[in-house]
Structures are given as structure tokens and as C-alpha cells.
Design goal:
Layout: H1 2-27, H2 31-56, E1 58-59, E2 62-63, H3 68-79, H4 89-97, H5 102-124
Antiparallel strand pairs: 1-2
Length: 127
């Protein structure tokens, strides 16, 4: 499963970089710079997302006591009359805390790629 996930992530990053390369040629921009920023954003997002979930208390063993996740769960349960709504924010974060699936990796990679490109535009356009 790890190998398939890795191949899929490489495919997503490569395809988004190719799309960006077409845009870069139109604007006269250096495409390699965009590739580096977008790749770095994708890698950072894929690495940071599970760490952030764990730090918030959404772990494979469940929601950690006294954590931000526990507070969110308490508020959600009170708002829903004693139970956490299936498909809600807390349930989704808990599901992600137990391990990322292909869809979560795809969304995280795409978000990181877009964030990397946005960071490139912010930092390189200041010149």
C-alpha cells in the first residue's frame, strides 16, 4: 500500500507541475523555480498534516484526553445532543488521525502544491 501511495503522490505532483509549466511558458516565468516551490509545498503538506493531527490529539488509538481534539469532541457532542455527528469535522479528523487514505493524500498533496505555488508568487514577486 505504501508503494502505491508513493507512486500516486509522485503522479499528482508531476501532473500539477506539468500544468504549471505550460502556464510558466506563457508568462515567460522560469518553470524550474515553480517546480521546486510546488514540490516543496506538496512534501511539506504531506509530512506536516499527520504531525498536526497527532499534535491536536487525533491519534490512531483515539482522541487523546485533554487535547484540542477532546475539546472539539465535547463541543460537538453537546451541540448534537450527546453524540458526535458522523461525517462531521471531529469524525473526519479522527478518521484521518487513524491513517491517511489515498483521497486524503491526494487532497493534502494538491493543497500543498497550490500552497507552494502561492508562496512562490508571494516571495518571488516582491523583487
Amino acid at each position: 500500500m505504501i508503494m502505491k501511495s508513493t507512486v500516486f503522490l509522485i503522479y499528482l505532483v508531476a501532473s500539477s507541475l506539468l500544468v504549471n509549466g505550460v502556464e510558466s511558458k506563457k508568462s515567460g516565468d522560469s518553470s524550474w523555480s515553480s517546480y521546486i516551490w510546488m514540490g516543496a509545498g506538496a512534501v511539506a503538506a504531506v509530512v506536516a498534516a499527520p504531525v498536526a493531527l497527532g499534535a491536536a490529539g487525533f491519534t490512531a488509538a483515539g482522541i487523546a484526553s485533554g487535547s484540542l481534539g477532546a475539546s472539539m469532541m465535547s463541543v460537538s457532542a453537546i451541540a448534537n445532543g450527546g453524540g458526535v455527528a458522523a461525517g462531521g469535522l471531529v469524525a473526519t479528523l479522527q478518521s484521518l488521525g487513524t491513517g491517511f487514505g489515498m483521497t486524503a493524500y491526494a487532497v493534502t498533496t494538491a493543497t500543498g502544491t497550490a500552497g507552494g505555488y502561492a508562496a512562490k508568487k508571494i516571495f518571488e514577486d516582491e523583487d
